[in-house]
Specification:
alpha+beta; 10-stranded mixed beta sheet; 3-stranded antiparallel beta sheet; 22 helices; about 40% helix; about 15% strand; binds adenosine-5'-diphosphate; binds magnesium ion
Length: about 675
């Protein structure tokens, strides 16, 4: 594997890409840098890559179903209306003639610079696997890895990043830089270390700052591209690759290459920064009804789909601003927690194929890509102080060794710090201010906090030395503590908000449960209306009138159980009087079946607009239903609605309750 182009050339390209990104002249829309101290948002960027026909010809029997319109948009035939096309707009569209260098320079290279700012970045290659009797290789691995002749994103990014870190970390520069790599795969919801395959399933954890960690994952230092290849090539052979009926070379696991850039400041205040780059070749999305998978393959495919399905749910939750984002529901999303709606600059490259027989897979991939485009990240700089700069805690450990050992244990950088500053004499205003000048390179906000703490201590008549007069190392420890407490408070605030939202949702549910649904025991075909009559009678009333008109009534109103009153006639209905009554309805099985069938037909054939005509279905749910249908095919029963992300079992029941009678009645009217 070798990335093409000379080093000089690459450096020029990187500089140009960064300049274009900064000036906004790049083809991708860039986030605006706000003036607030909150990290500026960076929308997940989405590029679509259309691969060429694999045999190089577009044969008349299978003309392409996708057409690029410009560098950002494409159109695809509309299967519902052949006169129309569906148009999609992305941050970038790469047509079948685009080269590996086009994709790299246009969409990946510009985000690499953020790693040296201590921020995270991720590149995900997404794409479908295909349907039964046909193979679909949309080009995910080609995009990420490529071949020796056409190296992909991974070798190009590594080559540039290593070059950049060598330059930035050279002797005499303010920061020392080091790069490490880890390589893992997520296979059947297990995290496997490809650099150490014997290590088994690893756990994913989150530290108090929200960073995602995998304790025990191998981390190899790399300082040259040869180092990288030495670890990467044998590890790639450890990847779990299976053969399905549809795709002989289908990679059935998500492959994740993690490259960390660690920076340590050579002089005071000895900051350290860490930037993580995830390069991910996702397993293809599969539809088991079409792949013919069985046994282990079905289980594998289920696990792959779980991860991708949850990825879709995460994207939807982020788009809708829901308080709970289900990152923890799959390993992939847990790992990507700080890349999607988190702290990273992310780019999703959706790979699609031009062949008409993959039309449905292509539409699904495009729909997923379009949804991902709306996700907003908030990248921030992952910066802290180097442990040795945090003074007393570390020092005391070293002091335990005695003076000579302690000196040996100290690194050369620590030697530069020298002994702690002598205790300042107490507190005149000018004496207090002088240490500030030595801290001039620190974050002003941190100093402001320190000053207010100082004032607080002084106002409480603290016996101890004022903070700004304490030795430098202790000040650093105090500042670090303040910073950590701030983060902890932020985290608790977020948690509190989540809990409040949960409570509200629970209350709403309880309220709903308080009035048992009119059609809850669907399977029994006898239903109890326990809602206040004022609301619940709306639909039954139409039916009652219908019943009165028809001798073969299919709906019978039975006596009110709660108050042992019998409804004699419709005229006897007096809303005020009966506002709290509960009635039992008996509905003919045929009528219910009609209602269910009508709902099913609408779910499978209705447009988003048709769906909105149903009770309890707003524009968002209608979109979710249409999206699910496009991804998974038709609903086989109305209860499948519960499988649509964003629709709970309770909502499904209440939806049925609200619609089934109305539609059944419509069916009768229509039939008569
Ligand atoms: P996937 O990983 O999505 O299953 P691959 O990347 O393995 O698909 O692609 C299968 C084959 O198709 C590769 O061997 C590659 O030669 C070819 N291919 C894919 N995308 C392109 C492309 N954009 N240009 C040229 N060849 C491609
Ligand atoms: Mg592949």
């Amino acid at each position: 594997m070798a990335a093409g182009g000379s080093t000089q050339q690459r450096r020029r390209e990187m500089a140009a890409a960064s300049a274009a990104a900064i000036s906004g002249a790049g083809r991708c829309r860039l986030s605006k840098i706000g003036a607030t101290r909150r990290p500026p948002p960076a929308r997940v960027r989405v590029a679509v890559r259309l691969r060429p026909f694999v045999d190089g010809t577009a044969g008349a029997s299978d003309p392409p179903c996708v057409r690029g319109m410009d560098s950002c948009s494409l159109e695809i035939a509309n299967w519902r209306n052949h006169q129309e096309t569906l148009k999609y707009q992305f941050d970038a569209f790469y047509g079948e003639r685009s080269t590996q260098q086009d994709i790299y320079a246009g969409s990946v290279q510009p985000i690499l610079r953020h790693l040296l700012e201590g921020q995270n970045a991720s590149v995900l290659a997404y794409g479908p696997t295909g349907a039964v009797f046909s193979t679909l290789f949309p080009g995910k691995t080609h995009t990420m890895l490529g071949s020796p002749e056409q190296p992909g994103v991974i070798p190009r990014a590594l080559m540039d990043l290593l070059q950049l870190t060598r330059e930035e970390g050279a002797e005499g520069r303010p920061w020392a830089l080091s790069v490490t790599m880890s390589y893992l795969e997520i296979y059947q919801e297990k995290v496997l270390d490809l650099l150490d395959p014997a290590s088994g399933d690893l756990v994913i954890r989150e530290d108090c700052r929200g960073n995602i960690l995998i304790p025990g994952l191998s981390q190899k230092p790399i300082s040259s591209f040869a180092d990288f290849e030495r670890h990467f090539l044998p590890a790639s052979r450890n990847r779990t690759v299976g053969a399905t009926r549809l795709n002989q070379r289908s990679s059935r696991s998500h492959a994740v290459l993690l490259v960390k850039v660690d920076q340590r400041e050579r002089l005071a205040p000895f900051r350290q920064r860490e930037g993580k780059l995830y390069l991910i070749d996702l397993a293809g999305s599969e539809d088991n009804r079409r792949t013919g998978n069985k046994g282990l393959r079905l289980k594998e495919s289920g696990a792959i789909n779980t991860s991708l399905f949850v990825l879709g749910k995460v994207v939807d939750a982020l788009n809708q601003g829901l308080p709970r984002v289900p990152y923890r529901d799959s390993k992939l999303t847990r790992l990507l927690q700080d890349s999607l709606g988190g702290s990273a600059h992310s780019i999703l490259i959706a790979n699609i194929a031009p062949e008409r027989r993959f039309y449905l897979d292509t539409v699904s991939a495009l729909n997923f890509a379009a949804r991902s485009k709306e996700v907003i990240n908030r990248p921030f700089t992952n910066e802290s102080l180097q442990p040795h700069a945090l003074g007393p805690v570390k020092l005391s450990q070293k002091e335990l060794l005695g003076p000579p050992e302690a000196k040996r244990a100290r690194g050369p950088e620590e030697e530069e710090i020298g002994s702690p500053e002598p205790m300042a004499a107490p507190a005149s205003a000018s004496q207090k201010l002088s240490p500030l000048q030595k801290l001039s390179s620190m974050d002003p906000a941190m100093l402001e906090r320190l000053l207010s703490l100082d004032r607080l201590l002084a106002s409480q008549g603290s016996q101890g030395a004022p903070l700004l007069s304490t030795p430098k190392r202790e000040r650093m420890v105090l500042m670090k503590t303040v910073e950590e407490k701030d983060l902890e408070i932020e985290r608790l605030k977020t948690k509190q908000k989540e809990l409040e939202a949960k409570m509200l949702a629970q209350k709403a549910e309880e309220k709903e449960n308080h009035c048992p649904t009119m059609l809850r025991p669907l399977s029994h075909r006898t239903v109890t209306g326990a809602k206040p009559l004022k609301k619940a009678v709306v639909m039954p009333l139409q039916l009652i009138q219908e019943q009165a008109a028809s001798p073969n009534a299919e709906i019978h109103i039975l006596k009110n159980k709660g108050r042992k009153r019998k409804l004699e006639s419709l005229d006897a209905l007096e809303p005020e009087e009966k506002a709290e009554d509960c009635w039992e309805l008996q509905i003919s099985p045929e009528l219910l079946a009609h209602g269910r069938q009508k709902i099913l037909d609408l779910l499978n054939e209705g447009s988003a607009r048709d769906l909105r005509s149903l009770q309890r279905i707003g524009p968002k749910k209608a979109q979710l239903i249409v999206g699910w249908r496009e991804l998974h095919g038709p609903f086989s029963q109305v209860e499948d609605l519960e499988r649509v992300e964003g629709i709970t079992g309770k909502q499904m029941e209440s939806f049925l309750k609200a619609n089934i009678l109305g539609l059944a009645a419509g069916q009768r009217c229509g039939a008569s």
